[in-house]
Structures are given as structure tokens and as C-alpha cells.
Amino acid sequence: MSATPEAAGAPLLTVDRLRVSAGERTLVHDFSLHMQRGERIGLIGESGSGKSMTTTALLGLLPSGVTATGSVRFGDSPRNLLETRDSELMKIRGNDVAMVFQEPLTALNPLMRAGDQVAEIMLQHRTVSGKAEARRRAVEMLDAVKLPNPAEAARAYPHQLSGGQRQRVMLAMALANDPSLLLCDEPTTALDVTVQRQVLDLILELVRERGTGLLFITHDLAVVANMCTRVLVMNQGEIVEEGPTEQVFTRPQHPYTRGLLAASDLEATDASGRLFTVASAASYVPPTPEEERAAEAAAARTAHAAREAQQAAEAAAVSEAAAAAESSATGAAHAAEPVIRVTDLVRTYSRGRTSLFKPAPLVHALRGISFEVPEGGRLGVVGESGSGKSTLLRILAGLDQPTSGSAVVAGNEVSGARESQLRELRQNLQIVFQDPMGSLDPRMTVEQIISEPLLVRGRDESAAQRSRMVAEMLEAVGLPADAAERYPHQFSGGQRQRISIARALICRPKVVVADEPVSALDVSVRAQVLNLLADLVDEYGLTLVFVSHDLGVVRHLCDSVVVMQSGEIVEAGDTETVYNAPRHPYTQRLIDSSLTLRQELASAF
Hints:
The chain is an alpha/beta fold. α19 packs parallel to α20 (523-540). The radius of gyration is 26 Å and the shape is globular. The protein starts with 12 loop residues before the first strand and ends with a helix.
């Protein structure tokens, strides 16, 4: 299937019948693309669809044992890049064609300063007269990608920069020689929402200014709606649909495209109130830009009314404070004890000494936070990296001790508790981690992994009972019974996350803490896992603490939310009120920075 050029003139990139194979297995089938200069194209699909394999083939960077056939031509040149020697390709890579990778920390040299790495690109391709000019241009490029204090950033090593700053350095390196084509492979997946928005806006601004062609690889359809004018949808190594972004996203023709759109739309649910998945997307109706603009206007009116009602309620609360205090004191004895009660929680730790003459710097990870979660509640915790979310989770799980304050979880006080006293807490609280592959032992079978929480002192289940409990949990999370005898590497990412959930629930905890459990998953798998979590929370009467930087996920799954910044809770309340009428500027900034498919459709077309 061939993508039709939008503009006249010689294409910037011409790909015809590209086929990528590993031995007898074909990974990419007859991929064709004609890309014009300055065009912005999105390449979308799930993990394993062939997106990254396609782009590495274009650059001649396929791993050993993988081969490519077909034709790839750049600009007016008649030569086929697939048949070009590597020494010739090296002159093109980084000069005419550049790439921004998903994880900058692994793509940057940890032993070189950021400025030197940008300068090296120019020196390698001899686009500057010497080292002095290269260093000067490197600082200019770091300034162009809006790094604060670019001269200082140029002297920093990668580990001394934040994730967003490292990605900006990668972008400066990619654009240093003013390439005609920029390839971006999931460049913002690992970033916080505000940093993601900044990096995406920066990429869009720079490619527009320079007339650079952009091929943007991602599984996030909202990002494509924001960035790209044309889109190609890949599934199992084939392009199944292509066309202008508005057309594909509002009038999809292929069932797989409709499924991706449905699973990406966290504001749409099926007849039973569950998120759509690729399998259940037949009844999904994509929103049109006109409908979304009308919905946004109605939402703005609702938010304004909610703010006015909130202000009126606060005024009434002030005048009735004395009566309310007396009433709450009377009813406190009859109120249900919350499953989690955090009171004035403080966690301060010191970093390693950086000088013989200065004390070790202090990090104030938590600054006196307080909140409660009732039995059966679903609390969302949102905030960017460094806000204190992970420190809070470690304390709730008994993996860290607070400096001061109190944290009571399922009747167990964490502060000051000895290891032996935390055993009951860890039976009542279980964690589902972000990366299932990193949290599952690759040498253990699924049955051993899921049953491991039962092998603690005080439990007396027999081996037969444990096997029966594992079989029940596998059925509960939608995995076949024969999965018990297999190993983690034999499952997909979504299936491994189901195994993690089964392990967390086998000892029937009261509280489940989910730490970014769907951020590493494809959108279709994300919908399945979120539906599963919601079902299991209701079925087992669990109390859920859900940590995420994806505000759309928290809004769908949680009934209350706390917003954390620099170790403090800056806003808290029921989810819809906080989202529709945010009171703190930081909350407003998080919401404004979040990319949702419906909002991008409304604003982009």
C-alpha cells in the first residue's frame, strides 16, 4: 500500500516495497511511503507492529541477522540506501537524516559533556570550521531547544540533567546539521505530561521553522493528532490504513484503526460502562471536531458553574464552622475507620556529600502531607517526577520510614514499626509495579511467582491449596490455566501485567497500590488492564491507590485524587471537581498539558 504525496515536486523520502525479514520470518511486509519536504507523518501501531524495525531499516541500522529488501531513496539521489555501503550511510546519518530516540540516557554518551556531544555531530560531518566554532554552535543549539542557561548545560554530563533536558540535548544533536528529515521514535513516552507537551511543542516549532520533514513513530494517537498532518497505521508489519490525520481519526475504515481509536478514548465507554478495547470497538463512534468543540464549550460552562458553586459552598462553610465542628465531633465515634490515614507525614533524607567543607544537602521528599482513604475508595495520586509520589508509596508499603508524622495502613502504624511488625501490613497491602518484566523473576514459573506471597510465616496452605488458588487467580485475571507452567518471557507485556495483578491479589489484601501500572503498555492493552483493575476492585472490595502521571487514566478509574508537587499536596478532592474546576495553578498546568484524543481533534482540525 503506498502513501500518496500531498504536494508536487520530488519527494524527500521514497520507500517502495520495503520488506524486513529475520530468517524465514517476515517482520515488515511491502511498506511503501512517498514523503514530501516539510511534511509531518505519523506512524502508529502497537508494540510488535513493525514501526521501529521500519525506521531502523531506513537508516541502515538493522540488528545482525535481520535483512531488508526493496527500495529506499532520499531526495533526488538515484541510489538505493538499502544497497549502499555503511561508510556512505554514515555521511547521511546525522547530516541529511537524524533520529531522536525514546530513551535519551541510553542514547547519550555518559562520559561526554552535553555540549561536546552536540559539537561532535558537527565536527564529524565537517559542517563547522573547527572545534571553537563547534563549541559555540553547540551552545547556540542548546539555546535553540530552550535549555535554561545553555552554556552551563553544555558543561553538564547526561546524568546531571533531567529527562526532559536530556531529550532536548538529543534534539539539539539531531538538528545540529539542519537535516532534511527528522525521525522521532517515541521521544516523549518516558516524560512527565508538562515536559512532554514542552518537547512536542518544541519539535513542532523547530521542524516548521526549518522546513524539516518529520516521521513520528508512536502508539499515542493524541500525540499524532497534535503533531502530524498525515498518518499511517501499522499492524503485524503491514500498513492497514493511511490518509490525512483528520480523515483517519474521524472516519476510520479498517477495524484495527477503529479499535486503536476506541481504546485511546478514555472518555468513551461501551454499554456496560467499560472502556472499549480493540476487540469490542465495533460499536465505537469516533468524535468529530465539531462535536468536540461543542462539548468543550459545554464543559467550560459546567466548570464555571462548578467554581461558582464551590465558592458559595465555602462561604456557607465559614459561617457554619462552629456547628459543623460540633456535629463532626459527635459523629466521629460512629464514622467508619479509614483504611489509610496519613497525618503530617514528613520524609527528609540527605544526599551524598559534594564538598569537604559543606554539609550533605537535604532533600525534603515529603513536607507534612495528610489524607485519608475510606474502605473501598479509589484514590488517584498525580504529580510529576520529584513530587514525592514514590516516597509516599514506599512508606505506605513499609519499605521506608518517615522522618516524622503518622501513616496507618489497614490498622498498622508504619512509623517506628520493626520488620516483624510489618509482616501483617504486607499481607494487607500489595503493589502492582510499572514494569512487569522488571518485577517478575525470569527463572520462576508463573505458578511460583503468583504463589510466592503465600510462602510467609503464619500461613499454612498446602501445595495443593496454593495451586488451586493460583488457578483461581489466573481465571480471575483472564489468563488460561496452562499459563501456570510457563515463564514470564513467554507472555506479552499486557499478560505479564495480569500476572503481576494476580500475584498482588492472591493473599486477599485490603489495599492495592498500583504504581504507573499501564504507562508502559499499548493503548489497547491499557484499556484491558484498566477494565480488569476496575472489575477486581469491585469484586474483592479492594481499596485502591493508583499512582500515575496520566490524568485521563486517573479520571476514569478513581473517585478522588490528590495532586502532589515538591513533596506537598497542593490540591485534593473528588476527581470530577478537581478536573472540572482546578483551583491550584499547578493542577491547571497538568490538565492543560495533558494530551487527549478528543481535545486534539477539537483544536487541531
